[in-house]
Amino acid sequence: MPAPARLTPLPRAFYDRDTVAVARALLGQWLVHRGDGTTRVGRIVEVEAYLGPTDLAAHTSKGRTARTEAMFGPPGHAYVYLIYGMHHCMNVVTGAEGSGTAVLLRALEPVGELPFASNGPGRLCKAMGIDRRHYGHDLCSADLFIAAAPAVDAADIVVRPRIGVDYAGEWALKPLRFYVAGSPFISRR
């Protein structure tokens, strides 16, 4: 699938709304990272929604900390963190400032050449060249952003519980993982 000729960031208003609505709307959009003379592009095919301090699977469930500060910031920024001491993961901050809500980007369909597999949040960040330097990055900028692409039809969106949050009790079972039906690029079926 070729990238569109003109890639421009989505407006902040796209992110400044209900987190589940943003999660669903992110499917099919283009994640773009320009840097070091290259442009990396991937089509978002899998995401998970995190609903703020009451969501026991969300990092913000422990309150406002130095680590989670970006999640409490304005919508349309990146919350990038390191897991297992080696893998970066990227969330898109959503909702009103102070809400602590975000959407984890779980998998991309490669568009053009990506140097690594991009199925799974750690692989996605590695393939896109995203790391902690992008913590709090404004996604309305020209170097790391999400660009508009044709929306995925609601009938083509699969809804499942999130992955790897068993510690969150009943929140582990909430249907907050969304992916494009039939995509061979998702992290787990």
Distance between the termini: 22 Å
Second rung of CATH, namely the architecture:
Roll
- CATH homologous superfamily - what is it? Methylpurine-DNA glycosylase (MPG)
Domain module count: 1
Average pLDDT value? 95
Shape: globular
Indicate the proportion of strand residues. 25-35%
The count of DSSP E runs of length 2 or more, i.e. the number of strands, is 8
How is the biggest beta sheet arranged?
8 strands, antiparallel
Q: What structural category do the secondary elements indicate?
A: mainly beta
Helix proportion? 10-25%
Rounded to an integer in angstroms, the radius of gyration calculated over CA atoms is 15 Å
Count of helical regions: 3
Order of helices and strands: HHEEEEEHEEE
The CATH class designation is Alpha Beta
Q: Which spans have pLDDT < 50 for at least 5 consecutive residues? A: none
CATH topology: 3-methyladenine DNA Glycosylase, Chain A
In words, what does this structure look like?
The protein has one domain (12-176): 3-methyladenine DNA Glycosylase, Chain A, CATH 3.10.300.10. The two termini are 22 Å apart. It is built from 3 helices and 8 strands; from the N terminus they run ααβββββαβββ. Strand 4 (87-94) and strand 5 (101-111) form a beta hairpin. Strands 1, 2, 3, 4, 5, 6, 7 and 8 form an 8-stranded antiparallel β-sheet that branches. It is mainly β. The mean pLDDT is 95.
